[in-house]
Amino acid sequence: MRKNGLSEATVNAVVNSRFPEMSKQGRALLEEMLVCKTAEKGEAILKQGEIANGIVFVGKGMLRQFYYKNGKDVTEHFSYEGCILMCIESFIKQEPTRLLVEALESATYFELPYDKLQMLIDTNPEINTFYRKIIEYSLIVSQVKADGWRFETARDRYSLLSEQHPEVIKRAPLSHIASYLLMTPETLSRVRSGTL
Question: Using an 8 Å Cβ cutoff, are 74 and 179 in contact?
Answer without folding.
Answer: yes
